[in-house]
Amino acid sequence: MINYIQKIKELRIKNNFSQESIAKVIGVSRPTYTAIEAGKQELSLEEAKKLAKFFNLSVDEFLSGDVSPNLEKYKHMILTFLRMNLSKDKKIPKTKLAKLLYLSDFAWFYNNLQSMSGMQYRKITYGPVPDVFFRALDELEFDGKINIDHKNNGGKECFLISESDSNKNERITTISSDEKKIMKDIANKWKDKKTQEIVNFTHNQLPYSLCRDNELIPYELITQEDPDMVY
């Protein structure tokens, strides 16, 4: 069931609103709203925006259903990309990996109005990236699941990420086949591209360009993006 369904009902009951009154807020009939609350019909983005505004929430907060960021799944997304053979030595530059994860989360939201991992991304110089990205890498390295190699590239320090041989039999169960497919599509598009190319691409997207430095990036901005610019 979509995360926001239970939240709609909880907010309505908590604030003593009838189904008919909420139906009027989003401009649908009561039977249609009843179907939405029962999980038989999905909200459109415009309807979600109206409800979020009505309950004084951001669209991200509303659509997330208060689901906490899933660190385990985010780590599994990292491992999934490392298994996709994006380079001959199976190593991915840290900055490029961060961009692939971002594109996956926002592309998934573009199609499903939900983040894949639940992470909140921040606009920083080498972003967009969630604050937990660096912690996730540190923990994966500490647990012996990945290797982080330091390399000097033209005077600039570069960190290359790869999965450790001892971890390659770990089963990844948190990522669905549909999620893996879009991750694979993203990997194929950027497989032979340089890190700076994917950095430039994400920085030119609406979510990054419309936000201020160090600001959390609202997922709903990606829905305004041209389809060819989603990833």
Characterize the structure shown.
Helix content is 49%, strand content 10%. It has helices spanning 3-14, 19-26, 30-37, 45-54, 59-64, 71-82, 94-112, 133-142, 177-190, 195-204, 206-209, and strands at residues 92-93, 121-122, 129-130, 146-153, 156-163. It is mainly alpha-helical and 231 residues long. It has a 3-stranded antiparallel β-sheet with strand order 1-5-4. The chain is built from 11 helices and 5 strands; from the N terminus they run ααααααβαββαββααα. The two termini are 26 Å apart. The model has no long low-confidence stretch (mean pLDDT 90). It folds into 2 domains: 3-64, Orthogonal Bundle (434 Repressor (Amino-terminal Domain)), CATH 1.10.260; 71-229, no CATH class. Helix 2 crosses helix 3 (30-37), helix 7 (94-112) crosses helix 9 (177-190) and helix 7 (94-112) runs parallel beside helix 10 (195-204).
Structural class by SSE content: mainly alpha
Strand content: 5-15%
Number of separate helices: 11
Percent range of helical residues:
40-55%
Q: Within the largest sheet, what's the order of strands?
A: 1-5-4
Pfam families: HTH_3, SocA_Panacea
InterPro entries: Cro/C1-type_HTH, Lambda_DNA-bd_dom_sf, SocA_Panacea
Keywords: DNA-binding
Protein name: HTH cro/C1-type domain-containing protein
Keywords:
231 residues, mainly alpha, 434 Repressor (Amino-terminal Domain), 2 domains, three-stranded antiparallel sheet, two-stranded antiparallel ribbon
